[in-house]
UniProtKB/TrEMBL annotation:
Name the record gives this protein: Gfo/Idh/MocA family protein
Entry-linked Gene3D superfamilies: Dihydrodipicolinate Reductase, domain 2, NAD(P)-binding Rossmann-like Domain
Lineage: Bacteria, Pseudomonadati, Pseudomonadota, Betaproteobacteria, Burkholderiales
Domain (Gfo/Idh/MocA-like oxidoreductase N-terminal): residue spans on this chain: 6-125
Alphabetized InterPro entries for the sequence: Gfo/Idh/MocA-like_OxRdtase_N, Gfo/Idh/MocA_oxidrdct_glycsds, GFO_IDH_MocA-like_dom, NAD(P)-bd_dom_sf
Amino acid sequence: MNHNVGWGLIGASNIAREWMIGAIRAQPGNSVVAVMSSNAARGAAFAASNGIAASYTSVADLLADPAVDAVYISTTNELHAQQAIAAAAAGKHVLCEKPLALTIADGHAIIDACRQAGVVLGTNHHLRNGASHRAIRALVQEGAIGQPLFARVFHAVKLPENLQGWRVNNPAAGAGVILDITVHDVDTLRFILDAEPVEAIAMTPRSTLATELIEDGVMAVLRFGNGVLAQLHDAFTVEYAGTGIEIHGSAGSIVGRNVMTQQPIGEVVLRDSKGEHVIAIEHTNLYDHALASFNEAIKGASSPAATGEDGLRALAAALAVLESSRTGKSVLVAV
Ligand code: NDP
C-alpha cells in the first residue's frame, strides 16, 4: 500500500532543524511540506534553508494546506495545547514536543481531542527510543537485576548558549529545567520500570543562569507505584558532570553512562554475582526510531513510541516535582 505522509512543522525551531526534519525525511514516503512561524521572514528563511515548499504565519493556514497529513509541534511549551487541539480538529495526526502541555487539564484536552478526531497522538520523548534505554528495559523485564529497588538519573548539563532564551527567562513559555529535562527523566524511568511515579519531593538551588523564579537545577526523589525510589539530578548549569542512569535491584545493578542525550551513544553495563558484563548496544538515531514508530501508528499497526498518555504522565510527575520544590512538601502525582 502506498504510504505517504506530508508533515507540517508548527514552529520554526532548533529541534526541528537539527533533528526532526532529517528524521521525517528518513521515513519512506514522508516529506516536510510546510512550516509555520509567527514571523514571516524567519519562516521563509527557515523554509528556504531547509528545502520546505510552503511557509505560513498562522496555524490555521498550515492546517488548511491539503498536503499536510500530520503536524510536528515544536513551539514554546505554552503553545502546544492549543496547537495540538487545532490540528486534531483539522483531522491531522499530531506529534507534539514535550512537555505535552503546561497543565494536566490541557494534557487531557489534547488526548480527548485526538481521540475524538481519530488521529494519532504522540509525545516526542526521544530517550525511550534509544537503543541503550531499550536494552536497559529489556534487562529489567527479564529479571537480570531481580526486583528493582532504586534508580538514579544524572541529567545535569550545561544549556548550550543558543538555547539560553525562553528556557531561562520566560516563565510564560513553560521555562525551567523541570519542564525541560525532569520530564524526560520521568518518561525514561516509566519506560524502563513499567511503573508509575506516585509521589515527589524536590529542592532547587538559587538560580545562577536562569532569571529569578525560574529553576535552573533540581534534585528530586520520586516514589514509584512498584516501590522503586528514583533520585534525579537535572541542571542547565554544569558542564562536566556527564549523564547517566542506574537501576539497582535485589540481584544486580545496571549502569548506563552518557545515555541521557540526543546522540545515539553511551554504554550499558550489568553488574551481578557473576561480575561485570558490558551489554552490546547497536546505536541508531533516536528520532528516526520515534518517527518510524509514529508511521506504524498511522498505519494502525501499533502505538507511537511515546503516546499522549505517556506525555501526560511525565508532565504530571514533573509538575509534582515543581510544586514540591516550591512548597517544601512532598506532593502526590495527580493525573
Ligand atoms: P526554539 O527556541 O528553537 O524554538 C521555539 C520557538 O521559538 C519557535 O517556534 C520560534 O517561533 C521561536 N524562535 C526560534 N528561533 C527564534 C529566533 N531566532 N528569534 C525569535 N524567535 C525564535 O526551541 P527548541 O527547538 O529548543 O524547543 C522547541 C520545543 O521542542 C520545546 O517544546 C522543547 O521542550 C522541545 N524540545 C524537545 C527536544 C527533544 O529531544 N524531545 C529537544 C529540544 C527541544 P516561531 O515558530 O513562531 O518562529
